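Appendix B. Chain record.
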Amino acid sequence: MTDIQFFDGHNDAVQFFAEYRSPGRDFLVRSETGHLDLPRAIEGGMIGGLFALMAKPEHAPEGNVIKTDDGYEVIYPESLLSMPREFSSKVPK
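Structure tokens predicted for this chain:
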């Protein structure tokens, strides 16, 4: 039988890390709970993966999004508008 390596394009393992959520799991230790931990990933042939995190803002946004007939308009903070020129060309006007 041939071993097949795979790359997981989306996994939610990080949201169950002990450092992120209580009670969480230690990703480095085999677990019978959840769909992914490092020992099982290695045994299964996983060579990499992606996950996403959402960072909650420290303060609720106020007045930075305006609903329009076509969708939404985002008002960028002054700090983005005054950044160095090599970066500011990437910020939509």
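Further analysis of this model is presented in Appendix C.
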